[in-house]
Structure formats: structure tokens, C-alpha cells
Amino acid sequence: MKKPKDVVAVFDNGGATVDRYTIVYNDNRELHEKEIGGWRVWDCVGSNVYPTHPQYGFFQHSECHYFPPGHGGNKHLGKRIAWGKLPDIVKQCVINDCMVEEIQGV
Question: Which one of 22, 73, 97, 100 is CB 3.0 to 4.6 Å from 11, fit for a cystine?
Fold first, then answer.
């Protein structure tokens, strides 16, 4: 599955929290330029391994502190991983999420 153009980075915290995966989006054109300790706040989704499971699934929009490469650390998000390392069901949820936002013009 091809990575959507709005996906900036993908992180895996190894299951330390229910939102094991953090997928950082660049879909907000203003990039939430909020002054929170000098950090930029980005749109993201958190997901577990089973995002569509009716009882245990987790796939939630949020905001996160993300530093582009060369501009600080992202250890709080986990280890940066390649798009291809995400489970297929998580990739499909992200693709669907980006498509909905494109259709709605968000």
C-alpha cells in the first residue's frame, strides 16, 4: 500500500501504550503553530495493532509534538519506522482517513 502524501512520519513505541503507533500528518496547512514550550504541534493519529476491532480497537486523532529530522528528538513518540513496517490494517485505516479528508476538503 502506498503511503499517503500527508503522512510525514510513523513511530512505534513497541506497545508501551495503547496507541502503539503514532502517524504524523502534514494535512493542516497552518501546522498548528502553537507555542507550547517552543515546540510545534502536528496533527496525528494514534493506533494499536487492531484499529478496527469492535472492543479492543484504537484509532484516534490527536496532536503531537514532532520535530522534523535534524530539529530535535522524538523519543516520546517511540522509534521511527518505515511506512511498510505498519500492519496492513493500520495502513488501510490511515489511507481511508486521508481520503475522507481529501474528499471533504479538510
Answer: 22
